[in-house]
Amino acid sequence: MKTIEQIIAIMENVFTYKGFDEEFLEDFCDRYDLSYRYGETRWVIYCDRWSEVLKIPRYDNVQEDVNHCEMEVDFYENAKLYRIEKIFLPIYKVATLRSGVEIYSQPKYTTSACETPYRENKRLREKINFEVGFSRASDKKMFMYDHYRINELWWSRAWQIYGKTFMRQLQIFSNDYCIGDLHGNNVGWLGKQPIILDYAGFNSEDIK
Q1: Rounded-to-integer distance, Cα 192 and Cα 170, Å
Q2: Whole-number Å distance between alpha carbons of 98 and 54
Q3: What integer is the mean pLDDT of 148-164?
Q4: HSE-up of 3 (CA within 13 Å, CB side)?
Q5: Residue 154: what pLDDT?
Q6: How far apart are CA 127 and CA 73, in angstroms?
């Protein structure tokens, strides 16, 4: 198994074009026993034995040359002004290749969709809903930007752990910076702590 540092050194000579596509990335990951995932704006490369994942801005399917990873870096710093940064998974740049490919890193996480089996998820959701008061937590979700995408179990747990004052600040922040698209694959868990791991979204043009 190669370390993150070794993989980045290899990428310097292989990633010669920042608009690479999935076929290219799949071939690279197969060659070095890595795994990958992707969304509309970012690639994610990971290995079972790494403690972090690598994120790379995706340009093969977008019209504008927008670096959504760098947007996340800025959003994380801005979240500190609202004192809510601990719910966002930190992200930082680790390399810029000669080709212009920029590489970022985040701690490894578990997405909410696969954290627990369905039956255990259901029992946990019922327990949290009873303790928190589901109608109260669910109603408050309506004040989030792009609220309809938010995973219900994750939201209830976040409300339970972080509390009303913190979550109110998160609601304000989400609207000020258009933090949306918080579906089950963009939120998750760091241990038992609910976190937001993908928070640049698609709506940067709406930011106040």
Answers
A1: 19
A2: 17
A3: 81
A4: 3
A5: 82
A6: 35
- Long-range contacts made by residues 34-37, C-beta under 8 angstroms, separation at least 24? 34/7
pLDDT in tens, 3-15: 999 999 999 999 9
pLDDT in tens, 78-115: 999 999 999 999 999 999 999 999 999 999 887 765 45
Instruction: Give which of 65, 68, 60, 56 is closest to 96, Cα–Cα.
Output: 56
- Whole-number Å distance between alpha carbons of 193 and 174: 19
Contact call for residues 164 and 84 (beta carbons, < 8 A): no
- Residues 23-41: pLDDT tens digits? 999 999 999 999 999 988 8
In Å, how far are 3, 11, 21, 43, 182 from 111, measured between CA atoms?
23, 27, 24, 16, 11
Q: Are 55 and 91 in contact (CB under 8 A)?
A: yes
SS3 per residue for the chain = CCCHHHHHHHHHHHCCCCCCCHHHHHHHHHHCCCEEEECCCEEEEECCCCCEEEEEECCCCCCCCCCHHHHHHHHHHHHHHCCCHHHECCCEEEEECCCCCEEEEEECCEEHHHCCCHHHHHHHHHHHHHHHCHHHHHHHHCCCCCHHHCCHHHHHHHHHHHCHHHHHHHHHHHHHCCCCCCCCCCEEEECCEEEECCCCCCCHHHCC
- Say if residues 73 and 92 touch (Cβ distance below 8 Å): yes
